[in-house]
Write a structure and sequence with these properties.
The chain is built from 12 helices and 12 strands. The two termini are 65 Å apart.
């Protein structure tokens, strides 16, 4: 149920309650006033009739003449049915009446007895009292101290009820008309009061759909109001302004982050390409010194070829391609890696322990495995202290190739472990792409990589399946 309809119904119920209470109050007041006015009128008429009937009773009380007087008197009292009128003699016996039914005496009508007692007490010659069926009025028939009897009038309640029902019908018709008018006015008022809220709701729906450039003229007009609706619309305008500022800030941050990401990617690509380039430059220097030896020339050319392929596959790994094509991995590929990192090892006076049990070529892409090992070796060399130790182990076993690179550096901060394989994350000042590229390559080969804390330093273990990528997870899990 809408708020506008609820407001209209609430206003209608309030109007209905007000009309009912006002009608009941007016009916009750009108009925009491009418009854009191009718009692006073009947009381005056009874007193006047008692003075007129005195002469008939003094003249002997001609029944026919007195009956005509009683009928004229009863007909003169306003009522749907003429009231009952009786003339009692001094003994309080009915002398004559306008109906065939005898009037009750003092013993059968307590109200009559009370009225007669009040009249006998003196001080007044007329008295009126309410009864269960209406009210009765009595007056003494006397003049100059000579009392001949009593006039008694029984005014029925049905006459008052008839007047009351006519008043009720009139009040009901006027009340229903007034209620309909009030309901219509309440509907118009509710519509007018709810219009700013309805407009505000439409604006909020558009904002919820992402339209922060919405223009609400009616809302801006309601902002100038000093009531609760004005407070609500001002709060909406403030919220909308905050959302617009937030959107502008987010757009600026996205542009800044995009530019920063482009710069980081460029720096990371340069970093990953510089690694094999350094080894290739060392090989060229060696060729310049010992180029006359055919074996050195052949080894240098093979090293340059593998270095160029390494650069090509680095770019492919950065693009996260589904598969890297390369020739099978052999012992010479791993020996090249040992030659490539020698320059970095000598810079820090490190002891490089190289344990490779690979004898023949295995069903793994050489460039991918070289990319994995070169990144792990360079990270280990960077983490190892001056004069420290780096170990590389390569063991083919149970249809898989297990690689393990260790260093005796300070280890990895536990707070950084969850972000080690995230792009552009570096805990040692690098570009943050080495481990990310390594992890991507391991996943492409269907293997698993694991960081192991040592008593002094860190070990990175890589498990690669030989020719069965779909069974890599189970094989590596059993190996570990």
């Amino acid at each position: 149920m809408g708020y506008r309809l609820r407001m209209t119904l609430a206003f209608g119920l309030l109007a209905l309650l007000s009309v009912v209470l006002l009608t009941l109050l007016l009916l009750t007041t009108s009925y009491r006033e009418f009854k009191a006015d009718r009692m006073m009128s009947v009381e005056r008429m009874t007193s006047c009739f008692a003075g007129n009937i005195y002469w008939d009773m003094q003249a002997g009380g001609d029944p026919r003449r007195m009956a005509e007087s009683l009928n004229r008197f009863a007909s003169g009292i306003p009522a749907p049915t003429p009231p009952e009128v009786r003339v009692l003699d001094d003994l309080r016996h009915t002398q004559i009446g306008n109906r065939a039914v005898l009037a009750p005496d003092a013993q059968t009508a307590p109200e009559l007895g009370l009225l007669l007692a009040r009249l006998d007490a003196g001080g007044t010659n007329v008295a009126t009292a309410e009864t269960a069926s209406g009210f009765v009025s009595a007056a003494r028939v006397e003049r100059d101290g000579l009392r001949l009897g009593t006039v008694w009038v029984d005014y029925p309640l049905v006459s008052l009820q008839g007047h009351f029902f006519s008043l009720f019908e009139a009040a009901l018709s006027y009340g229903v008309s007034l209620l309909l008018v009030l309901l219509f006015l309440g509907w118009l008022l509710g519509r007018r009061l709810m219009q700013p809220i309805a407009n505000l709701r439409q604006c909020m729906q558009r904002v919820g759909q992402g339209d922060l450039d919405v223009q609400c003229d009616v809302v801006r007009n309601a902002v100038r109001s000093q009531d609760e609706i004005g407070d609500l619309t001002r709060g909406f305008e403030e919220m909308l302004a905050s959302l617009r500022d937030k959107q502008r800030m987010e757009q600026e941050m996205m542009r800044s982050e995009r530019l920063a990401a482009i710069g980081q990617v460029a720096a990371g690509v340069a970093h990953e390409i510089n690694n094999p380039l350094g080894g290739m430059l060392n090989a060229i220097n060696t060729f310049k010194r010992h180029g006359d030896d055919p074996k050195v020339a052949e080894s240098t050319l093979n090293l340059l070829e593998r270095g160029l392929r390494q650069i090509q596959n680095t770019v492919q790994a950065l693009l996260v391609q589904a598969r890297v094509e390369a020739y099978p991995l052999g012992v010479a590929d791993l020996d090249d890696l040992r030659t490539l990192v020698q320059a970095e090892v000598r810079k820090k006076s490190l002891h490089l322990e190289w344990q490779c049990l690979l004898a023949d070529r295995v069903a793994l892409p050489s460039t991918a495995v070289r990319q994995i090992l070169i990144n792990l070796l360079l990270n280990a060399i960077e983490a190892a202290p001056q004069g420290g130790q780096v170990t590389m182990r390569c063991v083919p076993q149970d249809g898989q190739l297990q690689l393990r690179v260790e260093d005796n550096g300070p280890g990895i901060d536990p707070a950084q472990r969850s972000a080690l394989f995230a792009p552009f994350f570096s805990g040692a000042g690098g570009h943050g792409l080495g481990l990310w590229v390594t992890n991507q390559t391991v996943q492409q080969l269907g293997g698993r990589i694991e960081i192991i804390d040592l008593p002094q330093g860190t070990a990175v273990s890589v498990c690669l399946p030989l020719g069965h990528e779909e069974s890599a997870a189970a094989m590596c899990a059993s190996a570990s």
